[in-house]
């Protein structure tokens, strides 16, 4: 099986498509153009072409500066961190601040079991009336 890089970065000069939809660095659409025209535009402005979406016809590329590419990579890394990992179980437990001692001990044992099983545990304590 081919391993695909999910990394976001400039594609350089190797573009497998003849016709592309190009977006400038400000987010404005420049329309569909031939790959040679897109490369010429990239060289004129000192920017890099980045593939945004390839599952559409024609594929969408964006002209970006190095700084924009770096910021986009950081955003995607943050999103990836924030999204729950597959196979990861998160348990949530909520109780009042006026909980009885024996109930607290029972819930503490339950939390310890979940942690041993490597589950993520979220605890919410509500203020008693």
TrEMBL record:
Which gene produces this protein? Mtif3
Family assignment from sequence similarity = Belongs to the IF-3 family.
Recorded protein name is IF3M factor
Assigned keywords, A-Z: Initiation factor, Protein biosynthesis
GO MF? ribosome binding; translation initiation factor activity
In terms of Gene3D superfamilies, this protein maps to: Translation initiation factor 3 (IF-3), C-terminal domain (3.30.110.10), Translation initiation factor 3 (IF-3), N-terminal domain (3.10.20.80)
Q: Which GO terms describe its biological process?
A: mitochondrial translational initiation; ribosome disassembly
Check the record and name the InterPro entries matching this protein. T_IF-3_C_sf, T_IF-3_N_sf, Translation_initiation_fac_3, Translation_initiation_fac_3_N
Domain named Translation initiation factor 3 N-terminal: residues: 11-78
**Gene Ontology cellular-component annotations:** mitochondrion
> Protein biosynthesis as a keyword?
yes
Q: Identify the Pfam families for this entry.
A: IF3_N
């Amino acid at each position: 099986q081919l391993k695909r890089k999910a990394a976001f970065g400039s594609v350089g000069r190797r573009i497998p498509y003849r016709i592309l939809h190009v977006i400038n660095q400000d987010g404005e659409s420049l329309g569909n153009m031939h790959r040679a025209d897109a490369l010429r535009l990239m060289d004129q402005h000192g920017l890099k072409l980045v593939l945004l979406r390839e599952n559409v016809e024609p594929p969408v590329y964006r002209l970006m500066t190095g700084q924009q590419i770096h910021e986009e990579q950081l955003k995607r890394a943050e999103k990836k961190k924030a999204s729950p990992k597959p196979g990861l179980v998160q348990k949530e437990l909520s109780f009042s601040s006026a909980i009885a001692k024996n109930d607290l001990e029972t819930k503490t044992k339950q939390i310890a079991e979940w942690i041993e099983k490597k589950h993520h545990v979220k605890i919410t304590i509500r203020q008693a009336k």
